[in-house]
Amino acid sequence: MTTSEDHEFADPPPDAEALKLIAALRPEQVQAIDAAVMRAAGRNWRKVAFVVGTAMGTLPELAPGISDVFYTQRVISLVSQGRLESQGDLSRMRYSEVRIPRQAGEA
User: pLDDT tens for residues 56-83?
Assistant: First the structure.
């Protein structure tokens, strides 16, 4: 049996206009986006789409016009840094989840 997940493509890359906006971001803006993503993540698994949407909602004036695709790229970066754990396919935010890594001995 196939599901809609089997037929859904990866999230699209940023378009030319989005790339211009991303290139213009200052390091402190990227740091603020990362901090918003970390605040939106929790110790329990959360869909990347939820984390991205929550983070975007907290920064409308700081990074206007920055798309969810860039926020998802920041999630992927935070996973590669070990600041978040992931499961699922991070190229499709609706089919992946992240959480803040648990500490040793934490349930």
Answer: 998 777 778 888 999 999 999 999 999 9
Is 0.85 topped by the overall pTM? no
CA–CA separation, 3 vs 70, rounded Å? 27
In this structure, of 15-19, 21-25, 75-79, 102-106, the range with the lowest mean pLDDT score is 102-106
Residue 14's closest CA among 78, 52, 48, 65? 65
Which CATH number applies to 13-99: 3.30.499, 1.10.10, 1.10.3470, 2.60.40? 1.10.10
Yes or no: say if 96 and 45 are a contact pair by the CB < 8 Å rule.
no
User: 43 by DSSP, 3-state: which?
Assistant: coil
Q: What proportions of the chain, in percent to the nearest 5, are helix, strand and coil?
A: 50, 10, 40
